[in-house]
Amino acid sequence: xTYDLIIRGGTVVDGTGSAAVTADVAVQDGIIVEVGRVDxxxxxxxxxxxxxxTPGFVDVHTHFDGQAxxxxxxxxxxxxxxxxxxxxxxxxxxxxxxxxxxxxLIELMEGVEDxxxxxxxxxxxxxxxxxxxxxxxxxxxxxxxxxxAQLPHAALRAYVMGERALExxxxxxxxxxxxxxxxxxxxxxxxxxxxxxxxxxSASGEHVPGxxxxxxxxxxxxxxxxxxxxxxxxxxxxxxxxEMGGDQRHSIDAEIDWIGRLGAQFKIPLTFLAxxxxxxxxxxxxxxxxxxxxxxxxxxxxxxxxxxxxxxxxGHQSRMNPFRxxxxxxxxxxxxxxxxxxxxxNPDVKARILAETPDVGDAxxxxxxxxxxFKRLYPLGDAxxxxxxxxxxxxxxxxxxxxxPWEVTYDVLLGAEGREFLLLPLLNYAGNNYDHLxxxxxDPVSLQGLGDGGAHCGIICDASMTTYLMSYWVRDRTRxxxxxxxxxxxxLTGDPADFYGLGDRGVLAPGRRADVNLIDLDNLGxxxxxRVEDLPAGAGRLIQRSDGYVETLVLGETIVAEGELTDNRxxxxxxxxxxxxx
Length: 582
What we know:
By secondary structure, this protein is of the alpha/beta class. It folds into 3 domains: 2-55 and 513-565, Urease, subunit C, domain 1, CATH 2.30.40.10; 57-309 and 429-499, TIM Barrel (Alpha-Beta Barrel), CATH 3.20.20; 313-427, no CATH class. The chain is built from 19 helices and 24 strands. The strands form 5 sheets. Strands 1, 2, 3, 4, 5, 17, 22, 23 and 24 form a 9-stranded mixed beta sheet that branches. Strands 6-7-8-9-10-11-12-16 form an 8-stranded parallel beta sheet. The longest helix is centred in the first third of the chain and has 17 residues, at 171-187.
């Protein structure tokens, strides 16, 4: 037989968690037809000896809701093996929407997810009102990577309640929202998302609509999902990570209580964000125990975890710079990076900036950085050390060198021609290590996610977490246990695909989609983050490229080869759950 494609002699890690095997993979019409020893010829043959052959990665936590309307590849995620991206997380998105609420939704996305409003305003062509019409618009656009969309609760509230979106809904409001949810699920939404943490605010400081929704509203919307067929509920719970806002009304323990009870009642898959905080680093064990109890009662709940710390990168390319509150530094901020660095190397400029008192309104935050944060502030360095030790901190360097930590910070940030970053881990870094995170990731009840692809453009690039899991956790970690290769691949492929009901992908087996990564594991790794101005309206963001992905294929067509994007557009919109092949 002549196939369209044969991938020969690779180390097949099939996405099920089973041991890797040396095998061929044959593809016809975008579908895998044979895995094993394949006889016959092909129109194209890839010699994969020495390469890992894995399913394409399924990233369940992205914020490409706007970018998906103009970027067919969804950079930077496509540089990190992602072939299916699920968006509409955290209750934030762009449909359904009334014509007079476009700017309001952009402001919400800008505030919560740090995506430049100018880029969204310039880049989005509003061709929809209902969620189904939004899906139609996504489907019309040729794309390289598959996208799936969840219906966001904040947009839903604004669509139904208008100016009253932050208020308690009436019975009629809940009925109208339930109807819109059912319509969205039937149109192809893969689920619904709730954002319930007081830490999420719009660019103008408003809470996210639905932050304080009562249980009757939540239950009604979950019932609508169940009645319409099926779909995942994704939740950012109140109190996540121990971050309690002044008017936060619920704790994460109370959140997990209703998540478990309603999950068992309505029998829909449910995932909530779970992170370790420094104050109570063992809390996650109690949450996981509650989840197991709920699942024994019939729920299908998965705590969603990251593969590295949740925090920010501070530096001259970041929106967050330790000196941004000092007048002299602020006067230089609009200079091109090379000119700014040249000015900052001037000893007189350095002395003046270090001697300045921060602006009065920011003195408290600057003082907090001085007294507390230097012990948690680490140079990222050439090695991109996302799990640094206490002795690597700015405070430790300053103590060893008998210098002021502000001066150390100033000098470090001039490294790499001003492109150095300082890592500030806020969550998932209790005890200055990843021991808790390892245990969370190793627990089969957890779901891998939280990469936030497309979001937090000014301070992080965590879309690279897939590559980090496959390189650092599988191969490079020395400060504690690693993750087996087969487990890591399963967590990025078959497991999330199964949870979201995407039975046509995530596993290398006959009948499944030929979404495939060919990976040189020995050379797999991350590039240093960099700032680019490639968004609409010239807006900037941090991106991070990778090495080691020899090819990434969607439906058997190469979309990225050795880091370079191709012109192939085999991807599309995923409308709802996809059945397992017969």
